[in-house]
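---------- Forwarded message ----------

FYI, see the Phage head-tail adaptor record below. Original note from H. follows.
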Amino acid sequence: MSIFERLDRIASGTADAVASVRFEVHPAKASPNGRPGPDPNREVWDGRGIFDENPTDAPVEIGNRNRAGNDLRTPVNGSRYELSVDRARFRQADRAKQGDRIWLDDLRKFEILSVQPDGLSRVVFQLAELRATAP
């Protein structure tokens, strides 16, 4: 084990002890009609990880009505959500897949957009918040 792996293990444990939140992962499986449903082959698991919510601005192309053409000057404000999980403490994190649902303690629900290993001892879930929409 290299010195960097030891330092990463120490830093990861300290960060989890100080800033982690509890979550539950509900495995999902896409059905033939495209709607996700529960995956009967994988079980629900809970863990702790570092949750980041960062503001983000994205330019959106819209139709400009003054004959100047489309432009990218319309920023859309939103948030980018990430959840970093220690793979050594939570082995199930390696089996998480795109489309799985995550429930936080504050009752917010998210869907995993991508699962990205950070190259060391953690895995980062890119998330999208699920909100109820009015009919």
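H. also flagged this: The chain has one helix and eight strands.
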